[in-house]
Amino acid sequence: MKEISTLSDINLNELITSKQRQTLLISQVEKDTDKIATAYADTGRISAIVTPKVIELSDNRVDLVFEITEGRITEVEKITFTGNRVFSDLRLKGVIATKQAGIFRRFIKSDTFVKDKLDYDIDLLRNFYINKGFIDFEVQSSVELTREKDAFLINYNIKEGQKYIFSEIKFDTSKLNIDEKSLDKINRIKNGSKYDRRRVTKLIDEIDIYLAKNGFNFFEPVPVVSRNDENLTMNVEIQINETRKVFVERIEVEGNSTTLDEVIRLQFDFVEGDPFNRRKVLEAVDKIRGLGFFSNVETSTRNGSAPEKIIIEVKLTEKPTGSLGIGAGYNSSDGTVATFNVNERNFLGKGQTVKLDLSTSKIEKQTELGFEDPSFLGRNLLAGISFGQTSTTPSSVPLSTDKLYFEPKIGFPLSRDSKLTIEYSFDQEDVKLTTASNLVSPIIRDDVGKKNKSALIFIYSLDKTNSVVTPTAGYDFRIIQELNGLGGDISFSKTNLNFKTYRTILRDDIILSSNLSSGVIVGSDASLMNRFTLGGDRLKGFRNQGIGPYDSTYDTHLGGKMYTSLV
Question: Which of 29, 248, 403, 468 is the 20 to 30 A CA-CA neighbour of 523?
């Protein structure tokens, strides 16, 4: 290959079928020439010239050379639309993938003309209009060269048609004993809103989830859509139909060379012999991805030993789960920070986590060793333990705290979406003043001394999101109740609440989330380190402990017994 810059010799050698030490076939050379010319056209160089040459050698051998004159990249000079009444040219240009050449043409490659991209643009325009209610939308494209034959002019001729809206969504539950009002609560499509088939698909998915979670096996929602041209409405009826009764014969797992089968099988809410439910399989796949052990998770099904049986195949690609980290940096909250950590999230292939964390900064020094098993005793039971030491010297108060702690825990599911974790925490704290001055708040002085804190902690979590990995809808609720006084020197109750919601807007392209957190302490023994403060990583824009009760006489942050934040 000669005169090649945009496509390498390696790329083109893989493309052609003529190979070294093979018989020379003229028909094959012609096909290879066309393939090379097409490859250049796909990169925007439609004027590229490919000339094959055969050079005769001794011993009945030849060299095959493709001489290539690449030519310049042919750009799209102008894109126009005709027939569009509702949406402007500017709006439609933002929909299609092909872009018009401009002042940044050296950097923007989407203004290169590629013929195959026109079909893709037509699909994008069609989906855009149909999702806006224009179900009869039609479009045709035409392409012309400029007079100088150095650029293209593209025109899209559009027939928008009429805009259709939803009529009232109806449900046919004659084949299932279910309260129709429960389905009405799921439906968020309002009568008179613009027709968008994606919303129908989303409603079907939500009904499918509802049926699976409530034990309605062998039923599926099927949309029946009809149009009313007189009223310009789309009538949608969701029929709950009975499906063929199919049971799971077995679950086959492959590709897990390190991870044990039992770790993967625990992510399924069903076992061999249970009714097959496609939605439950998808939920299991989401949970397996959420483990973080695999770079790829694929599932498929095949017929079992009988017509009413099915086999589920799970194909996995494992990825490294261990890490060794050494780092240093600076942030506005903690100043200079240095860290060292060793972490294995899939210890011995059992899904167990073993970690060692060392960190030091101007404010805090910490050493922690932890172990956690999410499938203790081969069951859906969490067991873990952690212990370590921290030394904290907040810049906002004249105190330093040295703490040794020991925290075993156990957790178990309460339902499909909720779980309870019970922890025991024993802390040995030694609080000292960092100043010899008498100008210290009496509230701060009360914290000085050695104390033992013994607590029982209950953590209840309810996950109603649509995905463990990337939630886009639903909510996640968590409440932490800490009871101090089971032994030790101090007694108080501490409650934390966290409520996070997710939703999407603008064709599901943007995910919005909100986080409401609140807390309250009952009792007078809670020290500064146990009281609530906001700022730093917990509330961006404020320094550590920057929000909360403040003693102006002694210029000291005290921490609070109540707080609420919404971000």
Answer: 403
